Amino acid sequence: MNDIAKMIREDNLVSALMDSFPCGVFVVDEQGRAQAINDTVERVLGVPEKDIIGKGSGEALGCINALDNPKGCGSGQSCNSCTLRKLAERTIFKNQKQKMRVSLQILIKGQVRDVALMLSSVPAIIKNKRFAILILVDVSKLAAFSPIETEDGFRGIVGRDKRILSVFDTIRQVAHSDAPALIQGATGTGKELVAMAIHKESRRARNHFVPVNCGAIPEGILESELFGHVKGAFTGAIRGKKGYFELADGGTIFLDEVGEMSPKTQVKLLRVLQDGKFERVGSEKTIHMDVRVISATNKKLEQEVRTGRFRKDLYYRLCVIPITLPPLRERRGDIPLLVEHFLSHYTQGPEHENAILIPTALSILMAHSWPGNIRELQNVLQFALIKSGGHLIEPEHLCPPLSEVIPSSSTLMVQNRGQKLNVTNVTKALKKTDGNRKLAAAILGVSRSTLYRFFDRQENQM
């Protein structure tokens, strides 16, 4: 037991408070290592405190990405985008409270589980050292009560354009089949979200969804990552390891950037699709599994087949159910919905309260060609939040070259006509801005004096 854990356990009041929480409590240091936990964490994970202290937060929590990496938490490629690590770092180094919902796959008493956690993080200084106190609430069971389809989207995919509505219909239809599906579309169009939606709509929803970025894993180890290996199979294989296919047994495996596979790996994948069996690298024992395969690529695989870079027989095995996602430029009407969705997601902290994109800035986004699609839009909005200080986002807060664009007068006229002042629109704007009339006027695309005149007219009519 380290000094922090020992100090907490010796302080009867602090120890009692931590253990009284029905949710998990982690104390994490600047390096992201767990320094103390409460009884709830021990009970849920089935791991004693002494085996968790000093480990990376993901490894201590049982994140499968951290457990499968020989160097532990923080050293894998997936760790670069780990929300849990980023939350703790922002809490410590910004000295600010943070709150976020995250989805993880963790190992609990030998079983891999998909969990949704609501994380609250507060900064603390103990013995002149900075820490983050993480409070974890498992909200996975609440997902069953959340609406599958909302006014603005379906299964976390935002959009009401007829092209994306057609994709929603396809998801519902193909989810009841176990046939392989191939999702094609440009980078940043949301292929993984579609794959996840198919999984969640299927009979496999209670089992694992295992995403694999085939283009990000070096070719020399891709086969081992997919199918696993036995101890001593190659230099550095100090222990046996399950592959992604074994982890996905009973569920769904998502092979992103499948077009980047080498011919050798393509042959082995073809056998898995044909027979449902494979061998770990270095082993002669055949493993049978039940996995639905969904793959995705931003390449045109038919063209790759014609040039000989991709096997024709594998292509036809993967593309039993083809799904094509439209680029953002072909569904511009969804941009306001996406903007509102991402801003509400990025502005959960008090430092970004009431962040609003004014109409002139929105008109610039509506006219942009979006070569990077939805992912580019996310980056633009994150940049604008930082540049604007997290409140009113104007054209100059957009990243170049968008900040240099002058909206056409016709675009602004059309937009302003759409923002007529009526009780419904004004009420929505005031609700969104918590009653701030200045911000409400900005979101409505009118001056404050115009909005005040509207209020005067409403009062005179009463």
Task: Give a concise summary.
With 462 residues, the chain is of the alpha/beta class. It has helices spanning 3-10, 12-20, 39-45, 57-61, 64-67, 83-94, 162-174, 191-201, 219-227, 244-247, 263-275, 301-306, 312-318, 335-346, 359-367, 373-388, 409-418, 423-432, 437-444, 448-461, and strands at 24-29, 34-37, 98-108, 111-126, 129-138, 149-150, 153-154, 157-158, 181-184, 209-213, 252-256, 277-279, 286-288, 292-297, 321-324, 356-357, 392-393.
Characterization of this structure:
- With 462 residues, the protein is an alpha/beta fold.
- The protein has three domains: 3-142, PAS domain (Beta-Lactamase, 2-Layer Sandwich), CATH 3.30.450.20; 147-324, 3-Layer(aba) Sandwich (Rossmann fold), CATH 3.40.50.300; 330-461, Helicase, Ruva Protein, domain 3 (Orthogonal Bundle), CATH 1.10.8.60.
- 40% of the residues lie in helices and 19% in strands.
- It contains 20 helices and 17 strands.
- It has a five-stranded antiparallel sheet with strand order 2-1-5-4-3.
- A hairpin with a 2-residue loop joins strand 4 and strand 5 (129-138).
- Helix 11 crosses helix 13 (312-318).
- Mean pLDDT is 81; it is low at 142-146 and 409-419.
